[in-house]
Automatic annotation (TrEMBL):
Pfam families in the cross-refs: AP_endonuc_2
Family annotation (InterPro entries): IolE/XylAMocC-like, Xyl_isomerase-like_sf, Xyl_isomerase-like_TIM-brl
GO MF annotations, alphabetized: isomerase activity
Keyword Kinase attached: no
Domain Xylose isomerase-like TIM barrel: 22-242
Organism: Bacillus timonensis
Key words of the record: Isomerase
Protein name: Sugar phosphate isomerase/epimerase
PANTHER family: BLL3656 PROTEIN, HYDROXYPYRUVATE ISOMERASE
Length: 273
């Protein structure tokens, strides 16, 4: 089966969803991964499609014109005081656009609270036919594989799953062997990128690299093949923000090179799962 690729919004975050869909199609992607949940981060554009009816219509038209599919939306963060109902409009958007998954991560140190809110998000997503993929992030509260599996096992929702980001997996110093114990059905897609092998000492540098200076697949020092060969064949969402390169090349050419490097790398490493 040929690998399938999605363009993650963080890779070309200053491209609004309709424009992003068209450039992803021209660059050769199969899917897009959109960010219609506004998080209010510094410099982050607001693409709340639930509130911006014109942009929603244009995004729907772009998907119809190109034949691209929506793989997932992000990010349903779990933090102290969050109301999971806040994510309902974005779930409706995902369902209307034919999306499959919603990405979540945990930013509270209260384990019981995190489990309850995560389970609630899963329950809200279920009627829309959406699965909820839990991602661990090195700068978040749940920042490694063990913590994520603890939440997933305890919440025990059939539409819950695990989303591995190659950068985050490496930075968490997790062992690839531990992926063998994860139920196969929990793997639905992953975030593909690369980064230097040396793990930053400071949280500031870790954050900077993950948000704005990731590397083309095969260019950094992460043993990507060792990770992807432990999990089933699933779509690869290329989340590879690199502000310098995207500004120099333009978003479309940058997205094209992200995809080319990923395909070249994967063609050289046969999948053994």
């Amino acid at each position: 089966m040929a690998n399938q690729f999605s363009l993650a919004h963080l890779t070309v975050l200053d491209s609004p969803p309709p424009e992003m869909v068209y450039l992803a199609a021209r660059a050769g992607y199969d899917f897009v991964s959109l960010r219609p949940i506004y998080m209010g981060l510094p410099g982050e554009p607001n693409y709340e499609l639930a509130k911006n009816k014109k942009m929603m219509h244009e995004t729907k038209q772009a998907l119809a014109d190109t034949g691209l599919k929506l793989l997932d939306i992000e990010l349903a963060r779990i933090y102290d005081g969050v109301d999971p109902n806040h994510y309902l409009p974005a779930m409706e958007v995902a369902a209307e656009l034919g999306g499959r998954h919603i990405l979540s991560s945990i930013w509270t140190d209260d384990r019981n609270y995190a489990i309850e809110r995560f389970a609630e998000i899963c329950d809200l997503a279920k009627p829309f036919g959406l699965t909820v993929e839990l991602e661990f992030v090195p700068i978040a509260s749940v920042n490694n594989l063990a913590g994520t599996l603890d939440i997933l096992h305890t919440a025990n929702r059939e539409n819950a799953g695990l989303m591995i980001d190659i950068h985050h997996f490496h930075r968490s110093r997790d062992r690839v062997e531990d992926l063998d114990s994860v139920p196969r059905e929990w793997f639905r897609y992953l975030h593909l990128c690369d980064a230097p092998a040396v793990i930053p000492d400071s949280m500031e540098e870790m954050t900077r690299v993950l948000r704005e200076e990731r590397s083309y697949v095969g260019e950094g020092g992460i043993d990507i093949a060792s990770i992807i060969n432990r999990i089933p064949e699933i779509p690869y969402s290329i989340e590879l923000p690199n502000l310098k390169r995207s500004r120099e090349l333009g978003n479309e050419e940058f997205a094209r090179r992200c995809l080319q490097s990923a395909k070249e790398y994967l063609n050289n490493y046969s999948h053994t799962s």
